[in-house]
């Protein structure tokens, strides 16, 4: 059975969507390499023929799984940038969303880091999908810091990503509450230092956030998570 995707007119296979959702939940909870095609087919309630109609094999499905998580994060952050939310609010909101995820039941770390660990070869399609996401995420947060002040925005972006990576791992391997608190404190400190750079360089209004608004407490970035929806 197929349906039409709203706003695009494209036909979407419900069987494919069901398979991708099932794969996302199993891959995230148990690992990509441990879940076989037979189990995916059985739990998604499709046939082998349907599976291979949509994917050449499990590797293609794994890439689609990573790309689906990537697309969900892009859409959520994109909705805020399109609404002209202040850059500092978006960065705080990303942190708040990560904290919520870290503390949620069934949390098993970052889907991207987990997949990269399972497929360490740089040329593997799954590994490359992870790298593409991380490059986009770094570029996005660096751009947000540049809206506050361009001075050392690249450094601040890398720092933010490292804070995120550490919190995602610590939240799974250690105390999720402490990991979340540490992440939020780290983001606040990073924003304070980065904003001060702009004031030190030039106190003129041109170095205020590009949105022209006062710094906000946090924007809502619901769903900006490194795990598949429903996992």
Question: What do you see in this structure?
Answer:
With 231 residues, this protein is mainly α. 66% of the residues lie in helices and 3% in strands. It is built from nine helices and two strands; from the N terminus they run ββααααααααα. A two-stranded antiparallel sheet has the order 1-2. It is elongated, with a radius of gyration of 20 Å. It starts with a strand and ends in a 30-residue tail after the last helix.
Write the layout of secondary structure elements.
Layout: E1 2-4, E2 11-13, H1 14-30, H2 37-44, H3 48-54, H4 58-82, H5 87-102, H6 111-118, H7 125-148, H8 153-173, H9 176-201
Antiparallel strand pairs: 1-2
Helix pairs in contact: 1-2, 1-4, 4-7, 5-7, 5-8, 5-9, 6-7, 7-8, 8-9
pLDDT averaged over residues? 86
Percent helix:
55-70%
**Main sheet overview:** 2 strands, antiparallel
Spatial arrangement of strands, main beta sheet: 1-2
What coarse outline follows from CA principal-axis ratios?
elongated
- Unreliable residue runs: 1-10, 204-218
Number of strands: 2
Radius of gyration: 20 Å
**How far is it from the N-terminal to the C-terminal residue, by CA?**
24 Å
Classification by helices and strands: mainly alpha
Number of helices: 9
Task: Output the keywords.
mainly alpha, 66% helix, disordered N terminus, single chain, two-stranded antiparallel ribbon
Can I get a quick summary?
The chain has 231 residues and is mainly α. It has helices spanning 14-30, 37-44, 48-54, 58-82, 87-102, 111-118, 125-148, 153-173, 176-201, and strands spanning 2-4, 11-13. The radius of gyration is 20 Å and the shape is elongated.
